[in-house]
Amino acid sequence: MSVRTLPLLFLNLGGEMLYILDQRLRAQSIPGEKARKVMNDIITTMFNKKFMEELFKPQELYSKKALRTVYDRLAHASIMRLNQASMDKLYDLMTMAFKYQVLLCPRPRDILLVTFNHLDAIKDFIYDSPGIMNQVDETFRRLIDTYNCLSDGEFQLIRQTLLIFFQDMHIRVSIFLKDKVQNSNGRFVLPTSGPVPWGTEVPGLIRMFNHDGDEVKRTEFTTPGNYVTPQREGSFGLYGDRVLKLGTNMYSISRPVETHMSGSSKNLASHAKENTVPNPLAKEELNFLARLLGGLEIKNPSGSDTGFRLNLFTTDEEEEYAQTRCTD
Amino acid sequence: MAAADTEYRRQQSLPLPGSSSALYNNLSVLRPPVPQPQRFSAVHGNTLSLLSAAAGTGTGLGHRQLPAPQPGPGIGAALITQAAWCVLPSRVLLVLTSQKGIQMYEADGSVLVYWHALDAPEHPPEQAVFARGISAAGEHFICVGTSSGPVLVFDIPPKGTNVTVSEVLEHHGAAVTDIAAEQGQAPDGAGDLVSADDAGSLCVWSTGEGFRLVSRVPACGCTCSSVVLWQGMVAAGFGNGQIRLYDAVSGRLRAQVNAHARWINALDLAPETGKLLSGAEDSFVHVWRLSRSLDTDDVEIHHCHTECVPDTQICGARFCDPEGDSFAVTGYDLSEIFRYSRT
User: Fold this and answer.
1) What string of DSSP letters covers A48-90?
2) What is the maximum span of chain B, computed from C-alpha positions, in angstroms?
3) ipTM of the modeled complex
4) How much is the average pLDDT of B278-296?
5) Which of A83, B192, B228, B321 gives B182 a disulfide partner, CB atoms 3.0 to 4.6 angstroms apart?
């Protein structure tokens, strides 16, 4: 519906992908130089100027298939390789994480703060490369120019468009289950306590006025919720405290990346049934973006830059097992 | 006047063939005279689920799905923004609004009566293009809002397919969100239709051969997602969780409720009692009671009841009877319609 959704979808999913890759690179003890090269190559490709220009044009969201192809290309923009099972798992984790962030955003406008959190973290990954830093800052400014002026209603339309894209996805993620933000049926927990969004009042007060506008009566009602007023608003500038934690890196050495094997997306009955009407444009858009990404200079493995395989599972055996259950 | 908490109990849910989408006002209920079954509809992406339930027992009877028809060569099925039954003296039509236009079906969804395509000036457009906001108005009109602001007024013949656009109302500067007709007795000088938009502005109209703007509440910078009109009072639900009551003649604010902790997605009204239902993304549904004294002109709103649908962002809420003794609720990603009743 909203024609301004694609940049937010792409950047946030990309951000989650980088968090996961970073954690797995450490877990697999990939040498520091190689790991940094992979991250730099992917980020350079992601923020390519021509690609960003295309992305920010007003347009409908890509189909799920087209978007998945974009990330397949992106993940292989360097010397790292992933087999299909690991790529599937990576994509499942990315999408469930962003779905969670979109759902839990206090205000629709806070999706922008989530995006800024991802970009702030990306800048940390490439702090020692001024060339790429420039590209990221450029995108930051483009985001601010495009989105800071949108109304709450327009942001809610963007949010509704994203939620329709993520509808019916209930893959269980270990880290979410452990933190009790996701139930065992795959649905996210919606807390009924904590700070209300910036601009909302804590529920309870009823004020009644006469026809001259004077307040004549005031009553209170109670609800089971336990809400408080928020401290301050996050920053929508190039730098600043975003306040919101959604979109920051939740993985670390001690909190590894895992999904529940039994909830594997391949055999979930409720797995999203894609719009069955064949879209003749889908092939077109797939080719265009994939061509754009594929046409970018990819560092080929040579001499000391030998490629390696990244495993999204904790052991090679797990990955092998998952690979055999992959559908084509 | 103390507000007694009236006990509503959960009834059996109605299963939906698809989960509900995150939209405003994503539930419509048709209550024909008993013994005809009640009908429910909820939007799931680009399809509409239609259910019927037996009057009295409320047991599910069956369902069908309405696809939005292919709007043009080579373009994928359009996302539906809203669906609502419009009850006119002569007939009942089921109206669907989408990114491509407006469809009107017979009440049971069996026959497409009329299709109106929206103009899409450029492709792809700079701004989203869609229709949203549906209401019966007057004796023989159906009003539908659009994303650029204009409200289309359709003149509906008592039978057949000869629907025409009789007027275009141009007072909204932002995307229309909801439209509602007076459900009680409008006092003298009050309009009988209200429309709301993304910027929070409300327009009250007097319907007829030529629609006339009666009063206006200016934009407040906060989206009004849902609106109802009863006894000359406008009740409006906002994105910041507030419900506000306005006088339909003067446009003055008469009550302000800090009702929800998140965006309100649905309001409904029970015309026999003045009960108001609100559903929001905070997972709560509240029942309120509106009252207006004819002598003193005091407008009051009191809280009656709260239900929590755990871990659910509510996207639709409707009373299932004119007294407000029962109601139904839909939620994002939820594949059922939750029902509650006092009786």
Assistant:
1) -HHHHHHHTSS-PPPPHHHHHHHHHHHHTSSSEE--HHHHHHH
2) 62
3) 0.93
4) 93
5) B192
Q: Tokens 């109106």, residue?
A: B116
H/E element, A158: helix A152-165
Q: Greater confidence, B56 or A193?
A: A193
DSSP-derived 3-state class of residue B340: strand
Check A157 against B128: CB less than 8 A apart.
yes
User: Which of B45, B257, B311 is facing A190, going by the closest CB pair?
Assistant: B311
- Residue A156 in contact with partner chain B when CB distance is under 8 A: yes
pLDDT recorded at residue B71: 52
**Two structure tokens written together for A161:** 């468009």
B319-342: b (≥16 Cβ within 10 Å) or e = bbbeebbbbbbbbbbbbbbbbbbe
pLDDT band with cut points at 50, 70 and 90 for residue A320: confident
What are A201-234's pLDDT values in tens digits? 999 999 999 989 999 999 999 988 899 999 999 9
List pLDDT tens digits, range B127-183: 889 999 999 999 999 999 999 999 999 999 999 999 999 999 999 999 999 999 999
Q: Determine the residue of chain A that is closest to B47 in CA distance.
A: A275
Q: Which two tokens stand for residue B47?
A: 């399809």
pLDDT above 50: residue A268: no
| CATH number at B8-342 | 2.130.10.10
Q: Note the Cα B122 to chain centre separation in Å.
A: 30
The residue ranges of every structural domain in chain B are 8-342
Instruction: Check pLDDT > 90 for residue B73.
Output: no
* B160 Cβ neighbours under 8 A, 6+ residues apart: none
Q: DSSP characters for B34-94?
A: TTSPEEEEEEETTEEEEEEE-TTT--EEEEEEEEPPP-STT-PPPPEEEEEEEE-SS-EEE
| Contact in structure between B140 and B90 (CB atoms under 8 Å) | yes
Return the closest-CA partner of residue B262 out of A196, A245, A195, A111. A196
* Minimum CA–CA partner of B298 in chain A: A210
- The candidate with the shortest Cα–Cα distance to B96, out of B237, A173, B109, is B109
**Cβ contacts (< 8 Å) between B240 and chain A: which residues?**
197, 199-201
Split at pLDDT 50, 70, 90, the class of B74 is very low
B174–A151 C-beta distance less than 8 A: yes
Pairwise CA distance, residues A97 & A77, whole Å: 22
